[in-house]
Amino acid sequence: MVQKAIQMNDGRTRVEIVVATIRQRIAGRSLTPGARLPSVRGLAATLKLSTSTVVDAYERLVAEGAILARPGSGFYVANQAAPFALAEAGPKLDRAVDPFWISRQSLEAGEADLKPGCGWLPPSWLPGDGMRRGLRTLARADGPALADYGSPLGLPQLRQLISRRMGERGIEASPDQIMLADSGTQAIDLLCRFLLEPGDTVLVDDPCYFNFHALLRAHRAKIVGVPYTASGPDIDLFAQVVADERPRLYITNSAIHNPTGATLSPVTAHRVLKLADQIDLTIIEDDIFADFEHTPAPRLAAFDGLERVIHIGSFSKTLSAAARCGFVVAKPEWIDGLTDLKIATSFGGGRLTAELVLNVLSDGSYRKHMETLRHRLSRAMSEVSAKLKNLGITPWLEPQAGMFLWCRLPDGIDAANVARAALDRRIVLAPGNAFSLSQSATNFMRFNVSQTLDPRVFEVLGDILPGKR
């Protein structure tokens, strides 16, 4: 029997409560696949409800696939295919160092919460006036710009602009070698769909951007990490892993590394490319922080000429995370296959957002905004670094640019415990093991300096860290 009676005390309708009750019984295995549900009349009598209420509840459950209707026989529990749970795809870790923990807490934080662990700038640091001008211009656009699907390859004028911007960083790519995506994350997702089969080995930096782990687990890849140094991956260990594991892909940041803030050196870049050539290793170079640089750093794609390096970028960090727009730069034959895959997974391009991004980037104020932003971040980097040092929190290195400080906590302090305690005080931090495949960053933490200027951050850290108050 499903339930003895229905208690109407939580604002839900009777139908909603019957549906929820049966769902719970199925999830709890009280009702197993193939089990016959009570008849409509029988359940209505048991629950002291009308038959129409039970009919409506059963119809909803049939519509969502939870139960099956067999004419002349009754209703039965459907076979439930267990959904693929990304959180279960990796090692069983404490939730505080799970790659999803930081993202969920940061994205769901209230306006009063502080987010030193998030990966984006505060709204007041972004070009709000430029975005408003772009939206006003877009509002006056013709019908197709506002209503039609975009080309799968993406808005031609924006791809032309990106091509010129790539040239400023030494990467020669025609507009036909550029495909727009909804974001840098979608770009990597498409590339994983395009290049990987389940079980393929993918090489990542250790530490690296935590969502690389999540994406690769979603594609059921075997993930192997290589320690990252101040000048790039540890090249001797990189060579050893390449020889032993023969990975299909290597995903990295070269210009401003996330989370360490390090910059790839030319010598390391050349050695990485030489090793990649030996085993036909494809490299995805994530360059979404490019506009934060004062002086362009070496790019693998520039040295390689886009032979085996795929370059991706995004405008979410410098324009707006609400207007999602990224891009892939690759050799022409790969762009053609990626375009087909984009049609299959998302059909046309996001024309409205692409038009907005083009308007803002074409405005002369964007370059001035970025100059101001780089100086502002540089000042914040110095201020936050000094205040963290006063608490015994030591930067791993002093980054040349960007927004991140990768810091070591005092000896014996677990960053996950600090993050849990800070969350109780409405502060979201980024514990190091979320970035580390080997779980070797227990006492490290990433700080976003633009989000760490509020005095409350240092006050709470001082309260949590032993002997600092």
UniProtKB/TrEMBL annotation:
User: Which Pfam families does this entry report, sorted A to Z?
Assistant: Aminotran_1_2, GntR
Q: CDD domains from the xrefs?
A: AAT_like, WHTH_GntR
Its domain of life reads: Bacteria
Q: Which UniProt keywords apply?
A: Aminotransferase, DNA-binding, Pyridoxal phosphate, Transcription, Transcription regulation, Transferase
Q: Name one GO molecular function term.
A: transaminase activity
Q: Which residues form the HTH gntR-type domain?
A: 12-80
Q: Which Gene3D superfamilies match?
A: Aspartate Aminotransferase, domain 1, Type I PLP-dependent aspartate aminotransferase-like (Major domain), Winged helix-like DNA-binding domain superfamily/Winged helix DNA-binding domain
Question: What family, per the record?
Answer: In the C-terminal section; belongs to the class-I pyridoxal-phosphate-dependent aminotransferase family.
Q: What is this protein called?
A: PLP-dependent aminotransferase family protein
Originating organism: Rhizobium aouanii
